[in-house]
User: Which sequence fits this backbone?
């Protein structure tokens, strides 16, 4: 773990994006910047063996609180 007081350690930068309400952070070295699915997007179907409840679970929608 890098020491936060060390000025030579790379840090994330906050970047303002025109036309957006939220700022973005620059990626950290050694991390995956491409998530498996975007927020709000349904996950892709798994490629492994299919179980008895998989069809029902993929159709279910989580409750809204």
Assistant:
């Amino acid at each position: 773990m890098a020491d936060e007081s060390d000025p030579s350690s790379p840090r994330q930068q906050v970047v303002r994006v025109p036309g957006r309400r939220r700022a973005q952070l620059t990626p950290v070295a050694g991390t995956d910047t491409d998530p498996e699915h975007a927020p709000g997007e349904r996950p892709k179907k798994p490629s492994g063996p299919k179980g008895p409840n998989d069809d029902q679970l993929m159709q279910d929608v989580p409750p809204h609180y």
Q: What stands out?
A: The radius of gyration is 19 Å. DSSP finds one helix and two strands in the chain. The chain has a mean pLDDT of 76. Strands lie at 14-15, 24-25.
